[in-house]
Amino acid sequence: VTLQEFISEPQFGGWVTVEVWQTITQREALSRELVTQSVLLLASLILTAALILWFGIQLGLKPLLDLRDAIGARSPDDLRPIRRWVPPELRPLVNTSNSLFQRLSQAFALRDAFISDAAHQMRNPVAAIQSQAEAAMTAPDEPELRARVARLTETARATSRLTSQLLSLERVKGRSLKELFQTTDLAHLLRRRILPFAEHQLRRGVDVSFAIEGEERPVTCDPVLIEEMLANLLDNAARYGLRPGGRLEVLLQFHPDTVLLRVWDDGPGIDPAQTERIFDRFFRIDTEQSPGCGLGLAIVQDVARQHDGAARCIAGPGCTIEVQLAV
Predict the structure, then answer these.
(1) Strands 247-254 and 207-213
(2) 241-285 confidence digits (pLDDT tens)
(3) For domain 178-325, which architecture applies?
């Protein structure tokens, strides 16, 4: 590099030339040194930032990782609430998990109670079938054999009914998804189910009527569950309420936001003190004389609840079952 400048001084004047030079080798060496220093400095900064970030993430995620390990170490049936300390950011997650654990505990408790009750209910008819079959094998003559086989057949039929209702109850529980709901002509569905029932009861002299009040409209429901509910309502009336020459009235009322299904029979009725309990599983008013297993109205109540409704019993005269559905 050459620099020239004119200097005007008494002792020294004229043009002054300054030349600065460097070899190409030296310049390239300096460039390489500067690049190396920059790369090392940048690498040190990146490594330091990565270490700080890694430690920060580990420190921040430690409560979540500890929570994961604690839940992972639990046994499959351990549904106790999570009591360990967690940061405020994780509390909503822990609260939601505890709520899920509580619902699962309740569901498992109901399942265990149902299995226990079902096993208890099945034990008696199975034992009766066995004893009656053994008795039939030792019948002294053909008339006695026929009588014993008839009793055996009746017990087997009752056991089959019990098994069918147990499966129906579980099917109702398993179809609790709203995605299964569809637009349904409820009045047509009820007519289709009531007609064969009325024809069968007519042979016993029972008068069955079906009426509709309000403006008919399609409703959103699960038609499979509604049919199951109606079948149990009619079966309950036929078993416990209807007598030869009796009367059964089925009424469907349409309201703006709900529908009401009322089934009334002119049978002996029910004690007002038992109108709530008849919807409990395996409850029977007269355990000695009652031919059923106490599941029909429990199924009715479950179906009503899955349609955001409820079932109730009204005592005397006769017996009235009302089912309100939010459809």
Answers:
(1) parallel
(2) 888 888 999 999 999 889 999 999 988 888 888 888 888 877 777
(3) 2-Layer Sandwich (3.30)
